[in-house]
């Protein structure tokens, strides 16, 4: 079957899909307005997008599965149309396969054809509640992609703000943002001013100027001003600012190069990559031979550091495109790409500059459906590791199926935990992914930036390292990585961002190096299957240095992964023997046999590999805490089991037994 994602050709369907239209109704005077060529639109709830697919009966249900007939795609489409749904698309697997998720065929688990439809919310909710056991109906939810800054501001500042019913007591604030070297205007900087009411927000013009109307009190009521530049400058966060209402207020930003020695005139390794031991690796360890995909907002490969990113696809339009993925209006994907694969030239070096990188664009407007489509392309292209710096407050069984299918084909998914300072978000909740939380380091940013506000007062820094307060947490967190004040490429220059979105590419970059150069993946785990992914995740955990004495730390997992398994390793050399600074000879899965990497009896995941202290890893980082890895979340524990539970429960409920 050829890869396809079909959509209705009707232009109105596409407009409804993007929320451009809403139901039209006649109102008083409608005829007169029509004669005057005027249109009246009453605002109502727009249609909601849903994913609908068959759920084949998994093996092992015995009598409970008897008599349950799977629905065909045509039957589901007809049923949806009878409910008044607009069928706006269909996602089909890119290769021929039996339509059975858990068949015993060598091909492994497969996701079914998925119908993308739009329904009135009340009908959609009813369909979800009453869907037969053999049918999956779920909201095609929007994905989150942003860095942590604005989430932090909302939780820490807006929580103290009050809405206002009138704008009569507003005050105008004039601001001019300039650079500290020669007062150069800083254009396209986002500026937020927080008063007693909701914040005022604007963007500086070519002269660095912006004028904002702050509602809810006078100048003395303004609690904070935050300036986030587009590129090349440090942000600024000013609490209780002294502002003038008559004159223009100047805010001066420091250049990134003022505090990062030699940047960007010389090759620089970021503080996060340095902590993980990237500088200790031989020059030939570059990721060459591995394939990595970044499912995000695209990648501006005109950036001097990203000319090596030459492959991609845009999933943000109905038709898709192999060219528009290079336009990154959000900058998020470009930032992630710099951490993973920034070139070997001047500027910030990424982990794997010679890896084969695919930029798969799902933002702006990314949904579960576009994520599924992008993951399907990863399977087709035999991608080794996928970076997912994204998440959702909702869960998707169909996304979980696709991730399991990807794993069965040797595609490893590394996922951000989320930035809401709450429980780990989806898909980081899944056991078939590696979930990454964020840490920061005191002294890696100016004190007058919002980066300094990411220190968690409930968990103060130890040796300067701390769990970022925005980072999501829970037993699903596998490892942590640097995610505060991470300098990386953005269109037009460089920027320092915060987020688990920034932490995840650090681990993805390390995983790419391991897959390209570690003997395990050239020998016993070369075959593309689930065991290969499990071995990769286990190796990452086994090389992690603990940052907490708690073996099941819900904020930092087993610790920060390091590059110690690659220190001293030459890509073309024979598999080395165990020794100081060398990876231990691999004779099987981690923890499965004597002579392998350390298992629970020998220190546990999170304990550095046996041998002398690895080169390039700070001594204080090697803490030696032992113990088992964190307890995995039972949510979606192995999709086959989860699907069986869903089907079993639904059938028992329909029979009145539960």
Task: Tell me the CATH topology of the largest domain.
Answer: Rossmann fold
Mean pLDDT value: 78
Distance between the termini: 41 Å
Percent helix: 10-25%
In total, the number of domains comes to: 3
> What value does the Rg take, in angstroms?
26 Å
Account of the protein in words:
This protein is of the alpha/beta class and 658 residues long. The protein folds into 3 domains: 4-139, no CATH class; 149-254, Sandwich (Immunoglobulin-like), CATH 2.60.40.10; 267-447 and 458-621, Peptidase S8/S53 domain (Rossmann fold), CATH 3.40.50.200. 19% of the residues lie in helices and 18% in strands. Strands 14, 15, 17, 18, 19, 20, 21 and 22 form an 8-stranded mixed β-sheet that branches. It is globular. The protein starts with a strand and ends with a helix.
Brief descriptors of the model:
12 helices, alpha/beta, 658 residues, Immunoglobulin-like, 18% strand, 3 domains, Rossmann fold, 24 strands, eight-stranded mixed beta sheet
Blueprint of the fold:
Blueprint: E1 4-6, H1 11-17, H2 30-35, E2 48-54, H3 73-82, E3 86-92, E4 114-119, H4 121-130, E5 135-139, H5 149-156, E6 171-179, E7 190-194, E8 200-203, E9 209-214, E10 224-228, E11 236-239, E12 249-253, E13 267-268, H6 271-275, E14 291-296, E15 311-314, H7 332-341, E16 347-348, E17 356-361, H8 368-380, E18 385-388, H9 397-408, E19 412-416, E20 434-441, E21 465-467, E22 479-482, E23 486-490, E24 493-497, H10 500-517, H11 530-542, H12 639-654
Parallel strand pairs: 6-12, 13-16, 14-17, 14-18, 15-17, 18-19, 19-20, 20-22
Antiparallel strand pairs: 1-3, 2-4, 2-5, 3-4, 6-9, 7-8, 7-10, 10-11, 20-21, 23-24
Helix pairs in contact: 7-10, 8-9
